[in-house]
Amino acid sequence: MNAAVEVEGKLVKVTPGDELNIYTANDLRDELTERLHGVSQVSVDLAQVSEMDSAGYQWLVAVKNLGPRYTVSFVKLSEPVKDFLSLLGVLSQFDGSASEAEEDA
C-alpha cells in the first residue's frame, strides 16, 4: 500500500494511493483514526486512485460522516473514482465537497 496519512498542524492529509478497496480500506481507517486527535480538518486526495470497490466507497462515506468536529474535503478525484461514484449516483456528494462543518465555519 503506497498510502500516506500525514498531520500538518490542524490538518490530516490522506492520500490512499492507487487502490481504495477491501485490501486497503481497513488500514486507511486505522491510520486516519490514530491521527485525528487534535486536528480539525481532513483532506483526502484521490488523484492516484486507479482502483476502487464498495469497501473503498464505504471508507469515503465514513470519512465524510466524521461529524461536526472535522471539516472534510475530497480533492483531485481521479477518473476511476469519478466513474465509480457516478455509477452509484453520488458523485456530486464528493466532487469538490466539504462537510457541513466547513460550511458553518
From TrEMBL:
CDD domains listed in its UniProt record: STAS_anti-anti-sigma_factors
Domain STAS positions: 1-105
PANTHER family named in the record: BLR2341 PROTEIN
Protein name: Anti-anti-sigma factor, putative
PROSITE patterns: STAS
SUPFAM superfamilies reported for this sequence: SpoIIaa-like
Pfam families according to UniProt: STAS_2
Organism: Reinekea blandensis MED297
N-terminal signal peptide: none
